[in-house]
Amino acid sequence: MIDNEQKLINDLKNAKTQSKAFDELVKLYKVRLYWHIRKIVIIHDDTDDVLQNTFIKVFKNISGFKEESKLFSWMYRIATNEAITFLNKKAKKNNLDIDDYQKELRCSLQDDELFDGDAIQILLQKAIAELPQKQQLVFNMKYYDEMKYEEMSEILETSVGALKASYHHAVKKIEAFIKNN
Fold first, then answer.
1. So which residues are the signal peptide here (predicted)?
2. pLDDT recorded at residue 157
């Protein structure tokens, strides 16, 4: 896999092979990045916009990729930053604090025709909405994406210890929210 990743990176950085390599990159990572972004921005159309912006940024900046992390970790970090920036802009546009805006989004899940969750899933999403943004990210990456703390540390540029603490606090807050609702 690492040899394949290195070949893909080399092809992405080569003007002659870049277009074909980029198509391959999109096929490989589009779905995973879509669902990561979707958990942050909630709305399907917004997710598509952020995903497109993510791939544009990857394409424009691949020549500067220093290969100090895995390609996917680098892309995941870009997607995370793009999603957070997008949310902050939307919250500001709606004259809301980012945490209030995210709660509003999560509460709208029941009206989303693409969300087919049952009552407990909706309750879990509402509990996640109550978390601070960093804890939401950490919880989603660990619980849903089943990422290891070391991968999360690369992506979020935070220590493993801080991530473990954030996840622990997130779980406790979610448990308390579910018990009280």
1. none
2. 87
Query: Is the pTM higher than 0.70?
Result: yes
Both tokens of 50, joined, read: 């952020």
- Is 130 exposed, middle or buried (CB count within 10 Å of its CB: 0-12, 13-18, 19+)? middle
pLDDT, tens digit, for every residue of 96-118?
887 778 777 766 665 555 555 56
Question: What domains are defined for the chain?
Answer: 1-97 (1.10.1740.10), 116-180 (1.10.10.10)
- Report long-range pairs for 97-106 (Cβ below 8 Å, ≥24 apart): 98/133, 99/132, 99/133, 102/42, 102/129, 102/133, 102/136, 103/129, 103/130, 105/41, 105/42, 105/43, 105/129, 106/42
